[in-house]
Structures are given as structure tokens and as C-alpha cells.
């Protein structure tokens, strides 16, 4: 019985992580071959590609009638990104915060978290909400591109590209590129792996919840959210080990913006539904609270030091203790 439950979960996570890597690597290489600007590649393909595992998981869960997993994945990932990943990264090395990232990107992260939390309490997430989220993401990326074309690349979306390149040398500038057909096959293979992995992960999560009588929402907020956040954990820790604390901060901020606007928006568009009341009344507010906490901590001295990182990690432990039955 345990094998039947955990095999799909673990297999799904492996496929999602590997598929996400292959998709991003292949898509970036195809775009480079077609002459797409490196700035545009970094701010769009990398961000969208690294969010595909979460997107497929949330959409598949919503379509399967498991909104607790769908929206628990989004909210739980953002909470884990801040408390678990920023906390762990700060313990490795203090996370330095660039003023530009704090002023523009962290402010956007806080605003979209507040909008998500407010809307989850009062309206269903249908085409209007989903379309608004997606348009907001497009506008944010467009404004970021315009600003960064006028100066040196900075900010959260650029940091996501740098963090991923540190983990996957094939994405670093100047790396040897394969033929376009090879890159295209790699991207398509990654997409197929993500689709299969998302299905396995959702099926395993639903089976786990039903077998042990645990709420699907709790499973989504914890196991699924932590699992789909593994790439962010790896890339942020590698950035911290390289003493690139500012990259670690931007990587998480960029991921949280994509999670709410991109994944939340697409999920609402493809599978309209209501955010489960337990998430709307508790977890979304926790997400908003820890987002505000991160912004306040980052604004004091423009860094998250080891002591503050320990507090964030302890906060995640308290959150899991309060959540898990």
C-alpha cells in the first residue's frame, strides 16, 4: 500500500524536476538559435520554464477536482520559499538585498500577495481574476524589460536566470549549444516529462490524502508545495554557497511573483473554482504576513543575516506543526 502511494509521488517529483530542467535548457537554446535577445530570454523563458512544474501540478489538480492541492501548492510554495528557502540560504551566508530589487520587485511581490489574499476571501477565481493576474504578469515583465534595457540587468527575474545558470552550466552565457533540432527535442521531452510528472504527483497526493484521512489542502500546502519548490531551494542554496546572496533573494522574489500571477492566473483561467475556505482564511493570510515580514527584514540593513534566517526557519517549523494533523 505504501509503495502504491509514495511511488507516484516520488516519481512525479523526479519527472517534474528533470522535465523542468530539460524544458528550460531546450527552450533557451532554441531561442538563442532564433536570435532572441538574451535579456528577453532571461526575463521570460527562464521564469516561465522554471514555473512549469508548479503550473502543471496546480492546473491538473484543479481539473481533477482537488482545489486544495491546486491552491495549496501556490500558497504553500510561497510560504516555503520565504521561510524555508530564504531562511536556509541566510544560514549559509547572509542574503544581501539590492535596493532596486527591494524597491521594485519585493514591492510587487507584497502587492500581489495582498491582492491574492483579499480576492480569495471574497470572490471565486474565474476567468476575470485569472485574466487579470496574467495581464499583470505580462505588464510586470514588459516594464522590467524596458527598465533593464536602459541599464545593467538587475532585479528578481534577472536573478532567477543567474541562479539557474549557476546550477546548470549549459545555461551560462558562452556555453556550447547543440543543433536547434536537438534543443527542440530536449524542450519537448521536458514538457512531456512535466505533464506526466504533474499527473503522477497529483494522483499520488490525492491517494495519500484519502488513505490516511488527511486533508488534500494540507497535502498541497506541505508535500506538494515543498516538492515543487525543490528547484528554487537548490538554486538559492547554490547562490548562497557562491556568496551571491542578492541572487538568492531575487530568485525567491521572482518565483513568488510567478507563482501568484502566472500559476494562479493560469489555474483560474483553465479550471475556474473557489479557493478552499481554509486556505483563504488562514494560509493565504500567513503567506501575506511572511511576505511582509521578509520585506521588512530585507529593508533593515538591506540583508537577511544568519540570526534572521534562523528565525525564518523556526517560523516554518511552527507553521508545519500548526498545519499538520
UniProtKB/TrEMBL annotation:
Matching Gene3D superfamilies: NCX, central ion-binding region, NCX, peripheral helical region
Pfam families per record: Na_Ca_ex (PF01699)
NCBIfam families named in the record: calcium/sodium antiporter
Sodium/calcium exchanger membrane region domain ranges (all copies): 9-144, 183-323
Bilayer topology term: Multi-pass membrane protein
GO BP term, pick one: intracellular calcium ion homeostasis
Record-level GO cellular component terms: plasma membrane
Keyword Signal belongs to the record: no
Signal peptide coordinates: none
Compartments (UniProt record): Membrane
Protein name: Cation:H+ antiporter
Keyword field: Membrane, Transmembrane, Transmembrane helix
InterPro entries named in the record: K/Na/Ca-exchanger, NaCa_Exmemb, NCX_ion-bd_dom_sf
Superkingdom, taxonomy of origin: Bacteria
Transmembrane segments: 6-24, 36-59, 79-98, 105-122, 128-145, 179-198, 218-241, 253-272, 284-302, 309-324
GO molecular function: calcium channel activity; calcium, potassium:sodium antiporter activity
